[in-house]
Design goal:
Blueprint (H helix, E strand, L loop, with lengths): L4 H9 L11 H8 L10 E5 L5 H9 L3 E6 L2 H14 L5 E5 L12 E6 L8 H8 L3 E12 L8 H10 L6 H10 L3 E7 L2 H22 L4 H4 L23 H5 L4 E7 L6 H13 L7
Parallel strand pairs: 1-2, 1-4, 2-3, 4-5
Antiparallel strand pairs: 5-7, 6-7
Helix pairs in contact: 2-3, 5-11
The structure holds S-adenosylmethionine (SAM).
C-alpha cells in the first residue's frame, strides 16, 4: 500500500541523511562488544534499519550474516545497493518488512539489533514479539529514548507527552525491559555527538530545504514553536532555529542497551505476546 501524504512528507524530510536516527559507529561497536561470540555462523536481524548506518557498522565489525528490515522500500533499496557496492551482499540482505509482523521462523537469529526504531511498536511489544525469533541465549540491542533527569524542562516534557507519551525515565525503562524476561548485559548513554553529527545537523539542512520546497504550504512549514532563530546548543558550530529547542533538550535522553534473552518463550507467554499485539495493552511480567 502506498504511504499516505503525511508519511510521504516525513520520508521526504528524512531522505538523503547519513542516518535516520541518533547514533554513532563507535556506539554501535561498543554495544556489539557486549555480545559474545559473534562469528561467521551468527545471524543478526537489524530491525528498522533505515538506510543502514548501523547495519554497515555491524557488517564491518563482525563476520555475521545480517538480515536488515525496514518498512520503507527506498531505504531497503539504498542499503542493498551499498551492500553490492561493498561486495558484502552475500552476507547482508535487506528486505522490506513490518517489524510488527516479522515472519521469520522461531529461533532464526542470535542477535536482534534495533537502533532508534522499537518505539514504532513499543518496547514491551517489540521485546516480547521478537523474542521467539531468538535462539537460546540470544541477545537484543536497542536504543530507546528515556528521561535522564527527574525534572526535564517543561517545554521538553510537553513536547514528549504529546509526541511519545510512552517515554519514561531510565529506571522505569530498565524495569519494563526486565519484566519482559530479559537480562541486561550492558547499557550506556549515547554521546551528544550521536544526536548532532550525523543526525540533527544534516536533518536541519533537510528541514531548511523542505521549507523552501513547500513554501506555498504554510501548514507544512511552520510549527507552534517557530520563532526567530537562536542558538540551539552551546559550542555548536552555528545557530539553530528555535524550533530545535526541543531537539536540543533531547541530547541526554537516549540509551543504548544490550540484553540477553535467557530462555525461549513457552506457550502461555506466546499467547500473551499475541494479546499485546491485538489490544495494545501492557501485560504483566513474563
Ligand atoms: C528513527 S529511524 C532509525 C533508522 C536507523 N536504525 C538509524 O538509526 O539510522 C526509524 C526507522 O524505522 C522504520 N520503521 C517505522 N515503522 C516501521 C515498521 N512498522 N516496520 C519496520 N520499520 C519501520 C522507519 O522507516 C525508519 O527507517
Amino acid at each position: 500500500m502506498p504511504p499516505d501524504r503525511a508519511t510521504s512528507l516525513l520520508y521526504e524530510l528524512f531522505s538523503g541523511l547519513p542516518r535516520q536516527g541518533p547514533g554513532t559507529a563507535a556506539s554501535t561497536r561498543r554495544a556489539l562488544g557486549f555480545v559474545p561470540d559473534v562469528g561467521p555462523r551468527s545471524r543478526v536481524l537489524d530491525v528498522g534499519c533505515g538506510t543502514g548506518a548501523q547495519t554497515l557498522v555491524l557488517a564491518d565489525s563482525s563476520p555475521a550474516h545480517i538480515v536488515a528490515v525496514d518498512i520503507h522500500p527506498p531505504f531497503i533499496d539504498a542499503l542493498n545497493r551499498k551492500a553490492h557496492e561493498l561486495g558484502i551482499a552475500d552476507r547482508l540482505e535487506a528486505r522490506v518488512a513490518d517489524m510488527r509482523r516479522l515472519d521469520f521462523a522461531d529461533g532464526s537469529f542470535d542477535l536482534i539489533w534495533c537502533e532508534g526504531a522499537i518505539y514504532n511498536m513499543g518496547v514491551e511489544a517489540g521485546l516480547r514479539d521478537w523474542r521467539r525469533l531468538l535462539r537460546r541465549g540470544g541477545h537484543v540491542a536497542l536504543t530507546e529514548v528515556c528521561w535522564r533527569k527527574p525534572e526535564p524542562p517543561a517545554a521538553c516534557a510537553a513536547f514528549w507527552s504529546r509526541e511519545y507519551p510512552a517515554i519514561r525515565d531510565a529506571s522505569a525503562l530498565l524495569e519494563a525491559i526486565e519484566a519482559c524476561g530479559y537480562e541486561t548485559v550492558g547499557r550506556f548513554s549515547l554521546p551528544a555527538s550521536a544526536w548532532w553529527d550525523d543526525y540533527y545537523r544534516p536533518l536541519q539542512d533537510n528541514v531548511t530545504r523542505f521549507r523552501e520546497r513547500h513554501h506555498d504550504s504554510p501548514r507544512l512549514t511552520t510549527t507552534h514553536h517557530d520563532s526567530p532563530r537562536r542558538t540551539g546548543r552551546t559550542g555548536a558550530s552555528g545557530p539553530l532555529p528555535a524550533g530545535n529547542r526541543h531537539l536540543a533538550c533531547l541530547l541526554g535522553i537516549l540509551w543504548l542497551r544490550v540484553l540477553r534473552d535467557p530462555r525461549p518463550l513457552n506457550e502461555s507467554q506466546r499467547a500473551r505476546v499475541e494479546s499485546v499485539h491485538q489490544s495494545g495493552a501492557t501485560v504483566s511480567p513474563v
